[in-house]
Write a structure and sequence with these properties.
10 helices, 204 residues, Urease accessory protein UreF
Length: 204
Amino acid sequence: MAWLSPSYPIGSFAYSHGLEFEIASGNITEKQGVKQWVEDLLKFGSGWNELVLFSLAYKSDSATLVELSDFAKALAQSKERYEETLALGRAFVKVTSKLVTVTGQDMPLPIVMGICAKNEDISLEYILPLFGHNFAANLISVAVRLIPLGQTAGQQVLFELFPTIEEVANKALAASIADLGTSCILADIASMQHEILKTRIFRS
């Protein structure tokens, strides 16, 4: 799926989701720590929210999409996360609109991608796990570059997360707006603290 390939030019490689702060602080130093961090985000944090938002956007009509988009913006845990999801959403629209008809200006990435998937008749059951895979792979790539974790170890972490990605995607398929929310307090704090990190490679 080209949209979710690392080579799709929306700039997702430039964002760490606060993980850069955790690594710089010495809180995550090895493979198991990376796996636990990403797994928690998928089950209880921003990863869960993004999968649910994608699913809801796919199922929503045009009358409720603006409200859903505003709610998605409000769920951003920090200024940088807010800027991240909007910047990626705009970049996705800019690139994809040259290929197919795209609606959803100035909306977070999971919203515009969910809309586009529906418009292109791509099965939600097919694309939602791929979206979760992309979320996990982007964060693991950050760890590979910063710890450094190593390419093989990074792929091992991703492979070990496959069951979690499938489980969370299946739950997100049936989730409602009432199921949105996070309980990953340390990840939320990390995304806030990243803004004042003295030396930064990533934008979030």
